[in-house]
Design a protein that fits this description.
InterPro entries: MTH938-like_sf (IPR036748), NDUFAF3/AAMDC (IPR007523). It holds the Pfam family DUF498. The protein has one domain: Hypothetical Protein Mth938, Chain: A, CATH 3.40.1230.10. The protein is 21% helix and 32% strand. The protein contains 3 helices and 8 strands, in the order βββββαβαβαβ. The strands form 2 sheets. It has a 5-stranded mixed β-sheet, sandwiched between helices. It has a 3-stranded antiparallel β-sheet with strand order 1-2-3, covered by helices on one side. The longest helix is centred in the C-terminal third of the chain and has 10 residues, at 75-84. It starts with a strand and ends with a strand.
Amino acid sequence: MRFEAFSFGSVCIDGVTYQHDVVIDRGEVRKRKKKPSRQFREAFGHTPLSAREDIPWNCSQLVIGTGTGALPVMEDVKREARHRHVDLVILPTAEAIARLEEHPRGANAILHLTC
């Protein structure tokens, strides 16, 4: 997987530009579906990442890119990662992409592209 460009609101992966949050699951890229987490938006001031979303747990490491640091990651996600023995790495998206480029083996990701 090659990350070719990242800027506020978009990322280019393997020649395809995405202008929405993405989930990377064993090399496949798809749109993040936030709807299951929207019910928590008011409590966080932003739609957080909750365990109710379709999280790509089939990995040894899950990298979460938080945009500029604003994406809240709920405790239920952290608890589920511990339960599944998945190393959870939470970083601003630019750093998360760098981490994925350096250590891609066994990693899945959720990348927030704004805020």
